[in-house]
């Protein structure tokens, strides 16, 4: 007799037999080992797994479980966070941290924003996913709002920043192909970061990210950022230029208005598409809704991602009609992109961050943060740079910057690094208050002092 699904009756937990049947390889001996030694490691792993099923597993147990099961592409991670509220993260041991990373500039409304959580819960109870075989109103309304608020005529959705840049690469190639003048050459800038998939990686500067995966897209090159003379490299064979109006991963370096205006002019002269990557600096972080507004330079395409859905995965490409009209059905696509759940979250976020009062608070609080950092750092000869709530402190070495980051964590303040590891990158939620900033400055000042005192003691 066939069993029937009853949504009112919870599923029974799997039996020990069903677990072992589902994962028969978990007890398999390691290759090259024999006897009791071959069984010892898998047995230890199984013991850790059983312990960690406990909802209150200790941090050490969870770290061992992570070591046993997760790919080590992020290195060894010690901190384990269990919950967050506003600008506070609470770890597995109940310690509270002031979060000035915002999940690498993602959680623009802070953690567990009440309206965001309600929007997601309501949409999840109605419809999460249908694929792009069909339309859904949340996707349509989000696209409409992005077009209304920006230079663009059309919007395309995907699932991350690197996916958005991959799509932009394809759209740029198709634009020139459709005009009967196929171009393959792409240019980006020194210290740029555009993603880790193969096309976007080819446009990313840092050699360590790329070397193990070569050959990459061969038609990618780099020119100097904020350097007028470098723009001569853009010619009639250039398909597109990718630029971050504010380099984030590259070291929190704003592009000058003069440079971006000259870049636009040179692209127009050569028929080259200009693509702005605002994955990190867009959607309010600069104090403007879009960072291109700081210079007044309008791109042909723009990529967005990180903060758009407030913590759920989403990416977007905004396009002018001149480019969009060249894209045909089947040229590109995604199964998950533009799903009702993530688009409902993004609509809520966009409504908040596009509010003029919200953006004014970003500018005011960002100025307060920058001024406070300068007060702390100027006596030490440390440069502070950035715009809005994306600020960097330049240290002489990566070692010293890393030491300050660790000391800040000891003071229960979370901050990031960037550049060659020598830039302390500060990117809190866009909802931080001046009181939050003052608390962060106090903790960072203590961290910096402790590192400098230790350095002086070692020098003596």
TrEMBL record:
Its cofactor is pyridoxal 5'-phosphate. Residues 16-29 have a biased composition (Low complexity). InterPro entries: AcOrn/SuccOrn_fam, Aminotrans_3, Aminotrans_3_PPA_site, Class-III_PLP-dep_AT, PyrdxlP-dep_Trfase, PyrdxlP-dep_Trfase_major, PyrdxlP-dep_Trfase_small. Its EC number is 2.6.1.11. Pfam families: Aminotran_3. HAMAP family: ArgD_aminotrans_3. This is acetylornithine transaminase. Pathway: Amino-acid biosynthesis; L-arginine biosynthesis; N(2)-acetyl-L-ornithine from L-glutamate: step 4/4. Belongs to the class-III pyridoxal-phosphate-dependent aminotransferase family. The keyword Transferase applies. Keywords: Amino-acid biosynthesis, Aminotransferase, Pyridoxal phosphate, Transferase. PROSITE patterns: AA_TRANSFER_CLASS_3. Its main location: mitochondrion. Residues 1-29 are annotated as: Disordered.
């Amino acid at each position: 007799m066939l069993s029937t699904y009853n949504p009112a009756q919870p599923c029974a937990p799997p039996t020990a037999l069903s677990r072992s049947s589902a994962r028969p390889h978990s007890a398999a001996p390691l290759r090259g080992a024999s006897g009791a030694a071959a069984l010892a490691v898998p047995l230890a792993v199984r013991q850790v797994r059983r312990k960690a099923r406990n909802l209150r597993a200790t941090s050490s147990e969870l770290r061992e479980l992570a070591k046993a099961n997760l790919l080590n592409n992020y290195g060894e991670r010690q901190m384990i966070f269990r919950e967050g509220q506003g600008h506070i993260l609470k770890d597995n041991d109940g310690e509270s941290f002031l979060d000035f990373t915002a999940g690498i500039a993602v959680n623009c409304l802070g953690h567990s924003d009440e309206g965001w959580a309600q929007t997601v819960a309501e949409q999840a109870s109605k419809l999460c996913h249908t694929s792009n075989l069909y339309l859904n109103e949340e996707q349509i309304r989000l696209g409409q709002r992005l077009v209304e608020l920006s230079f663009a005529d059309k919007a395309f959705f995907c699932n991350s920043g690197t996916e958005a840049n991959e799509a932009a690469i394809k759209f740029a190639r198709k634009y020139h192909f459709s005009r009967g003048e196929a171009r393959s050459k792409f240019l980006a800038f020194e210290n740029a970061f555009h993603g880790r998939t193969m096309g976007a990686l080819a446009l990313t500067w840092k050699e360590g990210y790329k070397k193990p995966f070569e050959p990459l897209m061969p038609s990618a090159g780099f020119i100097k950022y904020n350097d007028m003379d470098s723009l001569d490299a853009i010619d009639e064979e250039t398909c597109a230029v990718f630029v971050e109006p504010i380099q984030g991963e590259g070291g929190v370096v704003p592009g000058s208005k003069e440079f971006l205006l000259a870049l636009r002019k040179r692209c127009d002269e050569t028929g080259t598409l200009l693509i702005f990557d605002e994955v990190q600096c867009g959607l309010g972080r600069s104090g403007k809704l879009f960072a291109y507004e700081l210079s007044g330079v309008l791109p042909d395409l723009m990529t967005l991602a990180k903060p758009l859905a407030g913590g759920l995965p989403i990416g977007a490409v905004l396009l002018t009609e001149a480019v969009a009209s060249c894209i045909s059905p089947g040229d590109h696509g995604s199964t998950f992109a533009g799903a009702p759940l993530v688009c409902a979250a993004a609509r809520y976020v966009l409504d908040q961050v596009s509010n003029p009062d919200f953006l004014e608070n970003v500018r005011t609080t960002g100025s307060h943060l920058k001024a406070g950092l300068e007060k702390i750092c100027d006596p030490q000869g440390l440069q502070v740079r950035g715009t809005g709530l994306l600020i960097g402190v330049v240290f002489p070495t990566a070692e010293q910057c890393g030491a300050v980051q660790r000391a800040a964590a000891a003071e229960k303040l979370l901050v990031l690094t960037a550049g060659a590891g020598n830039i302390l990158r500060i990117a809190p939620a866009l909802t931080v208050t001046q009181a939050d900033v003052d608390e962060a400055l106090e903790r960072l000042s203590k961290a910096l002092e402790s590192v400098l005192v230790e350095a002086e003691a070692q020098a003596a």
